[in-house]
Specification:
By secondary structure, the chain is an alpha+beta fold. The protein is built from five helices and twelve strands. The strands form two sheets. Strands 1, 2, 3, 4, 5, 7 and 8 form a seven-stranded antiparallel sheet that branches. A five-stranded antiparallel sheet has the order 6-9-12-11-10, with no helix packed on it.
């Protein structure tokens, strides 16, 4: 795991704007029929604002039309540029071997926070739409799992990670095998939870793979083989994780607060609730 906390220089921040273009345009083979959109993403990313401090700290960009997640990749990539999605420096991320779902294979994956995820409050997460909070950049190819609904993903492609409420199923979007369309990972593959632990955090995007060992009393003394990605948020941490391999091991301690205005993929209310590695905060918020 790479875990440098070094703050990026101004020149490095400018370079990071290109991460969006790289994430959207990485091919790993196949047809490249959206070159104009790729050039547009590259130019827009390079000229994006460098303001990331507390005085200019907006919520992460939001997608309000879920049809973009299963439409042409060129349209999805153009929209991500238009809403201003950009990502943190590689030094603010980490890499680990990650299993994509309970019965899926694994790949070496780097998790990278969206540049404004650390500004995000719980209220913003429940305000409608799907917020882009991070990407997973594949450092090795993922073979896919047709029975579980996963297409193969080549090395250097990215998976865009969205959440539509403070807890519930996550929406993971990646480029299809034929390189033409956006694809959504199976809803049951990953879950999102906003862990409001009231711990102060330095300004700036952070993303880490972390162990799933519990910090609360209860069942489950190990990680169960699952993945858990952590991003700094305004009043806690934003967490993407795979549901527990043992389906009897429920994490729910309070009913999920699924957002009624979110897309169907985030409205089902089948989230696991607070996972055991998220402590209850000092103010008594579940």
């Amino acid at each position: 795991m790479r875990s440098s906390l070094t703050r990026p220089s101004g020149a490095a921040r400018l370079g990071s704007r290109l991460l969006l273009a790289l994430a959207l345009c990485a091919c790993g083979g196949g047809a490249d029929d959206d070159a104009p959109e790729a050039r547009q993403a590259d130019a827009a990313a390079a000229s994006a604002s460098q303001a990331t401090g507390p005085a200019a700290c907006p919520a992460p960009p939001t997608v309000t039309d879920p049809k973009l997640f299963t439409g042409p990749w060129a349209v999805f990539s153009r929209h991500m540029t238009e809403i201003g999605a950009r990502f943190a420096e590689p030094s603010d991320s980490s890499t680990a071997t990650v299993r994509f779902c309970k019965d899926c294979g694994s790949a070496e994956v780097q998790i990278v926070s969206e540049a404004t995820t650390y500004c995000t409050t719980p209220e913003q997460m429940d305000s409608g739409g799907s917020r882009i909070l991070a990407i997973m950049v594949l450092k090795s190819a993922y073979a896919g799992n047709p029975e579980q609904g996963w297409e193969p993903i080549p090395a250097n492609d990215s998976i865009f990670m969205f959440a539509g409420s403070t807890d519930g199923p996550a929406t993971l979007v990646y480029r299809s095998r034929d390189r033409r369309n956006a694809v959504v990972a199976p809803e049951s593959s990953w879950t999102f939870y906003y862990c409001r632990d009231n711990h102060p955090r330095p300004a700036g995007a952070r993303a880490r793979w972390r162990p799933r060992t519990p910090v609360l009393p209860g069942p489950g003394d190990d990680d169960g083989g699952g993945a858990y990605g952590w991003m700094a948020c305004a009043s806690g941490c934003c967490q993407f994780y795979t549901p527990p391999p043992n389906e009897a091991e429920t994490y729910r301690t309070t009913p999920p607060r699924a957002n009624p205005n979110a897309p169907d993929s985030a409205r089902s209310g089948r989230g696991w609730g607070r996972p055991p590695w998220c402590p209850a905060d000092s103010a008594g918020i579940p």
